[in-house]
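Sat 14:20. Reprocessing the chain from the morning session after the first attempt stalled halfway. Input below, unchanged.
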Amino acid sequence: MTDTSNPDALPDHVRVLVVGAGFAGLAVTERMLRDDPAADILVIERAADVGGTWRDNTYPGCACDVPTALYSFSFAPSPDWNHTFARQPEIHAYLRKVAADKGIRDRVLTGCELLEASWDNGSALWRVRTSLGGLTAQALVAATGALSTPRLPDVPGIGNFTGAMFHSATWDHDYDLTGKRVAVIGTGASAVQFVPEIADRVDRLTVFQRTPTWVMPRGDRALTRLEKRLYRRIPLTQKIVRAAVYTCREGYVLAMAKAPRVLPVFQLLAKAHLRRQVPDRALRHKLTPTFTITCKRILLSNDWLRTLARDDVDLVDSGLSEVTEGGVVDGAGRETLVDAIIFATGFTPTEPPVAHQLRGRDGRTLAQHWSGSPRAYLGTTVAGFPNLFLMYGPNTNLGHSSIVYMLEAQSAYINGALAHLAAGAGAAVEVHPAAQARYNERIADQLHGTVWNTGGCSSWYLDKDGHNSVMWPTFTFRYRSRTKRFDSENYQTRRTVQESVA
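Finished this time. Tokens:
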């Protein structure tokens, strides 16, 4: 049992070890504690606080692009949100409050980084090495998220730059951008948020774009005191709003996956937004994508396009080819001298670092099993890795709704698997390879013809083999239905520590 009276103690053994204390880690831990408040659970977190990506990403303007009514736990509604699209500080504060209110914080050991976890066939346990020492666990839940490790571009000279250089996910708040010449590499979701925030402070801004992305207006507004009072006094009203937002969002699937022929209507709206904010025809041409809308994530902003149209902002559409000691070189060979470089180049969702740290029954890492093309059963379990459960695993990402909904569904499924073991089913469960293969074949069939596969873009949804190992292909309620019950018939059970998996 974990010694919760000493939060700095690393036990010799726990029944369930959860790695990561962001949305995913909090969701699965809450679900287990809900059924058994005395459950033997330890959450290890490499940082000094809970919050995951909402703790780490503190760049100017950081906010969620999913409505807050849906991007929050169903088991922890809050009447205190300030905006319909919440900002980073209040999301982090919300997660800290959930961790405290639900008794999760007492189970979290911060400053403890996972180094390696290996399945021991003899003892039917996970043998885990961390930065604070070693321990064993019957079950391991990898809740490290898809947006936890920043990615830098592989370009020559990146180590030679003598100015300030950082990634948006590790923003250097000690560096004063005022009056500086700044290059921003990337035009994705984070750049769209922070570029308008820093444009007034810098002397000149040069934004490097590899491919343009469709941008739609951000329907954000401040929640009124009346709304907050209503949510506090009549909680049912907030549940109704959440249900309405959810239903509306599910309708997007009809366009993305079921009837992509209607997507040109959305493109007309995006083009109208572009025309309103960018009067210059040549710049509009640079900012107009050639792929179908929603093939990549739609960016939501009311001021991104307007910022790019400023006289003191330059858009380079030939990409970045080299970094020099004093600046950056574009694809056409032109060097721009700058004082600072900010990378807004995303993360590594199809090659999560944790996959290199997990070794299964045959001693190979999960990364070696996947070989750059992740596969899992229900995005949660993997053949060859007994008692391992992934949160936000392959093919659980969404293009239309809130990942929190999927995380809660996964949490219920994992809790069911652990209850199955606790009921005396055995020492370990492992998904049948055939069941995993059938499942992934169905997912691939459902993704065939969707805009994410056929929209003509190169996105992070596609892995190195061109396989879509990221997106969930249909309605989220279908995923919840599939994960409502732990389907033990699709699993092999090891009943004793001596018995090999059947």
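The two ends are 30 Å apart (CA to CA).
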